[in-house]
Input
Amino acid sequence: MSEPPAGSKAVRSDPPPEDLKRERDTFIQQFFRRGAQLSEELLGDIERLRQQVRDLEAENAKLRSQIASDTAIRDLLRKIDELEEEKRQLLALRTRSGGAGDEFAERFAELEAELANLGTLQVASVQLHASTTVRRAFRNLRELLAQFLGAAQFGVYWEADDATLVPINVEGISMKEARAVAIEDTPAGGAFQRNEIYIDDIDSSLGSIGRPAALIPLMMSSQRLGAIVVFRTLSQKSRFEPADFGLLKLLSTQAASAIVHAHLFSQAGRRAPSVQAFIDQED
Amino acid sequence: MAEYSCLIVEDSPMMRQLLVFALARVKGLKVTEADDGVDGLRKLAGQKFDIIITDINMPIMDGLKLVKRVRSDPVHKDTPIIIITTEGSQEDRQRALSLSANAYITKPIQAPQVIAKVKELLKIE
Output
């Protein structure tokens, strides 16, 4: 409380009434209590805000992490797509190259088979024309038919002047049996008349004298001289394969001339013609 | 230079020629020919072969006797043998295989079949 100014007469005020004093004290106490309460509430608010900040920061960090993780996943998904595409391309390439490989192997096998067939024909042709006697010619012919074609019963027939077929060499059947059959009357007869190779559609191992499995007309140039009749084949050979057709054709065009040449060579005393014989040749 | 040697025992010159022609397709294979079983044994006395191909029906000594002789010879007992024959019955096949032949091919032979069997037994790719 301040002093009264100098020269002024000090006037002592009356003490405040008790009730006012109590009221004042109560107010002060309430004021400070409220202040303390507000302070506490403020501190609490501050603490809650701090907690919220911490929570937000944690959530923020989590979100950042999530975003980073999502990016990584997106990257991985993109990578998977790329790899899937690469795999599709490789599979397509493999299919294409695999197909080409199969095609190549198939073609290679075809060529090998073709080469083998040509080899067979070459050996057959050489052996046929290497015969210098009729006996040898027939032996070679029999071997060819048995070993290369799998013929079990067959006969070589020559055409007589009356156009009938007469057996001149047989294998697997007797000459008597071969003579007994009129080839012209068998299913192969028609093909023979047309100078065509005949192959019956039955199981060739089940062919018979009455129904031959095959007939090969023996041609010399355009002249028909006879026929080879295959009555049946070995049990393990039930049909003629495409590979056999080359051999059948070769026999048709070359067997007759091999037999005729062997016969003429034998008749000439197995002597080759002299130079003069060729000079004197008219045609 | 030949890597493998093959002995063909076959009395038919035509069949021998066909086999020689076919086996010329097997790279590195040198082929020796014999007319019959006795000739085959003569050739075997002077050389060890990697594979033997023999016919069954031959004069003087047939293929089955030859196989027996080969299997009883310590030098050649493990040599792979292919038997070629006209017979196609199961009995004949069993008879040939019971003599420890490694394969059995029936006539008429197809060159690709012989080539494949030789390659298989010699383990050639």
